[in-house]
Amino acid sequence: MFTPVIKTSTNVMEDLLLAASDRGILTESVDFDLLSYETLYKGTEDEEWHQMEGTDLLECTTENEIRSLTFLLRQEYQIRIREAQPHPYLDLRFSIATDKYKSKVVIVIDPKSKIPLKKGVQEWIKEAIVRKQLQYGLLIGLYNQNLDREINRLLLKIQKTGPLSESYRFQMGEFFPPILPTNDSIILHYKKDKETKSLIDGVQPDDLILEYIFPKNGRDGRGCDGNFISVPEPNRKYAGAIVIDKNTITSTQDEHSIRFYAKVSGFVERKNGTFMISQVLKIESADFKHTGSIETGFDKDISLEIKQKLSDKDAVGSGVHIDVQRLDIEGTVGSNTKIQACEVNIGSQTHKRSQLNISEVANIHLHRGNLKAKEANIDILEAGKIEADVIHIKQMVGGEVIARQIFIDILYSNARITASESIVIEKIEGEGNKLIIDPHAIEAYHESIATLEADIRVKSSRIKEQQKELLTRQLSFKDKNSRIKIMQKRIIDAKKSGTEPMKADVVRIQQFRIEAESLKTFSEKLNEAELELQTYQENLDKLYDADLHAVITHNGLYNGKNRVVFLDPKTHQEYGVTPTGKVTHIRLRKEGDVKKVLLER
Q: Are 263 and 284 in contact (CB under 8 A)?
């Protein structure tokens, strides 16, 4: 038979193991009751231990002292060791978890626990948790700030939803957790996270590009077992590692970091250990293996120069994307490439599967791909396609061009040339070419037509509504006019007789005058709207007559094997001719209601 024994303990688990060993029984067969305990501490300047009064250690000392290495803390427990017996009502199955410093304590309750909603259950749970703390070697009564509240929440949950269906966790409390140091570091803000790797990252003025994070000291702590927690010094690896070019980069500083900002547009480059904003990048070639795509945005002042010296290798490899402000390429542009820039110069050729979007000027020696630009200057166009505002081509062999104005020195065969204003060709040496005047083929023209037509529809509908409203108001105003004249006569008669006119008559006369002024203003605005609609219609008519102002000029001889077509912007009717001999200008003329092609020889 197990005879209970009362003992003063500083390590409950050791005493339980010893009691089980002495009796030759399993440790699980031994349990204990906590009768009382006291907390003892020895401060930095103390020679003797002091007993703490209450549960708040900060009432006896300071946080700085508690977190110091020389501070000592321990507890002594008066316990009754007895045979382990199950609780008659409570079967609480749980474990205690802590962080690695043992500065925070978390309770994890198994859903297999049986927790009855009986009087005193809160204290039973609390006693079970305290016993487990002591078995784990943790101090008690000092950091259980949340224990009563969390037990109440647990019981309320069981009351509302029934027994636990999954593990239930709560943080019982924390003592004095350590504050870890912050190591110094460098953040490269200009490095963007992209699915497609780019060789360089473009920046704008005032963009944050770099940041040096200062090291910060941590703070030692003290665990829930009373032990001191030492915190290491922060690492200082990068102090002085960032050297900048002050002409292109500026910096600001606070207690947290030094931040470096771009002063100019460009890309971040490090040369000889110095960070700077550069604006011209020179490389031998661009391909996925060595550079990846180069996409900085043409809104940033970055020029890219690619000079490929090997004739059998593309300067811009297959599938590469380039997006810069200015691009100079000595070499060829490979297949499936995409180039976007304000200006581009290509000294060799573009592949038929290349795509170029240039906001300003494109200068290309031999073009076979797809090009959109404001102005295109091409030495040789060979089966490629160009859309621009103005196009200059020295030699055109097949392909398609669409522009407001097109100038070609020598035209060979099987080309499709579409303009809205003019086509000028010095010499035609081939056949099967089609010269087309079609304003709708020009995106800006088409958008202007669509916008004007939509505005006219909206404004016409609005004017019709306002005209109806004006008519209704005019009829109502006219009907009131006869009654107002009677009121005016009564007011005149009253003044002649020296009596005060009726107030109602005076008010109605004033309202009538206000309404008359409002009606006049409404009518004037309606007239303005009708004049504006008329202007819109006149502008639309001018756009519809664009084909009548266009001209095709050829300074050589037509061989009778090239077709000229004018398309009516309004009706889309074609007017075609196959000229022969000397025809310097071809226009479309309107004679009455009929349009005809006019050949000027």
A: no
Largest Cα–Cα distance of the chain, in whole Å?
133
Looking only at the bridges linking them, the beta strands covering 303-307 and 385-387 are unpaired
- Scored b (16 or more CB within 10 A) or e, 274-293 reads ebbbbbebebbbbbeeebbb
Looking at the DSSP assignment, which residues form a beta bridge with residue 563? 434
The two tokens of residue 574 are: 């074609």
Residue type, 352: K
d(CA 330, CA 98): 66
Residue pLDDT, tens place only, 483-517: 777 777 777 777 777 777 777 777 777 787 888 78
Count of C-beta atoms within a 10 Å radius of residue 48? 7
pLDDT tens-place string over residues 148-172 = 999 999 999 999 999 999 999 999 9
Q: What per-residue confidence (pLDDT) applies to 292?
A: 82
Angle between helices 147-161 and 121-135 (to 10 degrees): 130
- Work out the pLDDT band at 1, boundaries 50, 70, 90: low
Name the nearest CA neighbour of 331 among 353, 309, 352, 351: 309
pLDDT in tens, 26-58: 998 999 999 999 999 998 788 899 999 888 889
Are 90 and 121 in contact, with CB atoms under 8 Å apart? yes
Q: How many CB atoms lie within 10 A of CB 392?
A: 18
d(CA 280, CA 104): 56
Give the separation between CA 20 and CA 13, rounded to whole angstroms. Answer: 11
Cross-strand bridge partners of residue 436? 418, 565
| Amino acid at residue number 184 | D
Taking each continuous run of H as one helix and of E as one strand, the counts in the chain are 7, 38
pTM: 0.64
Average pLDDT, the chain: 90
